[in-house]
Amino acid sequence: MRVEYINPFVEAAFNVLKEVLNADVRRGELYLKSTTMPVLGVAALVGLAGDVEGRVLFDMSKDTALAVASAMNGEQLPSLDELGKATITELANMITAQAVTKLHDLGFKFDLTPPALFTGENMEISDHEVEALIVPMEVPQGKIEINVAIRERA
Amino acid sequence: MTGNEGPSVVGTAERKDRIDAINFKMVTFSLSGKDYGIDIMNVKEIAKAGKFTFVPNAAPFLRGVYNLRGDIIPVIDLRVFFHLPAEKKDEDALESTLILRIGDHIFGVVVDNIDKVVGISSAAIQPPHPIFGDINIKYISGVVENQGRLYIILDVVRIFSPKEEEKPRVVAETAALSAPIVIAEPSEAYDRGSSATSELDFIKETLFALKRFGATELNDGWLNARFAEWKSMKKGSDLQLRNIDDAEQFLEGFFSPYTATFWSDEYAASVQSILPDFSSKTIQAWNPGCGKGHETFSFACVLKNRYPDVRIKIWANDNDLLSISSAPNMVFDLEDVPDYCREYMSKGKNGYGFNAAIRDAITFEYHDVLNANPFPELDLVLARDLLSFLSPSDQSRVFGDFSDKMKSRGLVILGKNEKLTDETDWKSIGNDEVSAFIRA
Description:
Mean pLDDT of chain B: 80
Radius of gyration of chain B: 29 Å
Number of domains of chain B: 3
Oligomer: heterodimer
Radius of gyration of chain A: 15 Å
Low-confidence stretches of chain B: 1-19, 164-193
Order of helices and strands of chain A: HEEEEEHHEEEEE
């Protein structure tokens, strides 16, 4: 993954999470991962197109998703209902949009697809021929893994 | 050890008798789950001992001194001595201790568990093999199987030779000093050869463990030459690499010139001289393991000089996030930049950087070559000293990727001391400084 893409995603994730949760956010060590990987339980996916092809995946456990959605709405949600899901989707949208804006300022042109939300148990995600950059974020509600897989259009 | 000399002089009938006779007894014990033995003639007694008195400034394997019915004896922890994991016990807990008598000296030795006394025939003892990697081979006098268990017999005379007093100062030195006392002159050429091979094998294993240096055909030539040099440097005494400093010293001469800095004018010229003509209008190159990018920038300038009218595209990557992150926007002092690069520099806010033509030619990526390598067809691969630092199986996998992506007349540039041995597919076109191979 191109070096210039890394920072915008890390910064955007950090800023947005800090702002919407109004809490301490800690970033873990970045690393690379290839092949199939398990999904924790709730995954919001935003596709990228333009100069590049790829996607960004926001991965967290169901409990974390519920706690994050509750914190963002300012009330305790009973379960991950329509409102909760819409909140997580919006969070994914905000982070990706901010990252893409930063990248645009650097001269890279990306388009976004609307986010899609997946929930379920024992899910896996596979990417063909592309490795993913993992940005682990620790928030008081739990762990959110941001999984960025982008490659240049050959 | 006497059993090894026997067979040639003793007749078959006598030999058969000897195999059945028990003429060697050893006390067996365990260290981190493996079985070991010590010649019973060296063992004075066994004891449960504890409350050793700590001795300041002594080597870490010296647990302290112990009062054995009025005699003060040093107590050595064999697990620490051999760098094996030891279970931490309470201060007051009693440890299984063997009391050894070697010459006039008495020592205590702490082990995990003392097992029993096993009697065997000394003819059944087999010479040690480097595969028993936990313990340096020079401290093993042999291995023997008894009732389904394999015992490694320690050469305590060699471990606790009379030079013991000097041990606390420098471990390596003592081993070197004690070695000449016990090593018998190898009488046959065969012995000499096999022990050299196992020494080298051992070094190879250590290099991989300490520095992830994978010894294969690729670097065999250098390794053999370096081993010979190492031997004469160490004068045949302690050859093994004990720690990361030793390993680094051993590998000192391996690296290609101008690693992690700009290539000098001469080196750049010698790379340029071997670059073949390409007919296509674009040249695609891959530079895995580019570090901070000095190598990639040098290479880009060389390519621009060699092929002025061709579009150049270099994919440069590294799995070290810190190094690679700084690569795209590096700034330099003009005097640090060699002549052949200067025409591609432009002045920015903070200093000189490479101009857009060079920067656009290079894509720096945070990428691990062991993951999928989705690159287009390549004309050039620049991978100096990269493959050697992968495990042997990863080496062949990554090199497989090189050749899969490579066009038919493609060129691979490897580290100075890395050579491809497959001469039917890859023809060497390098020189003394540059190791380069073109696809035949």
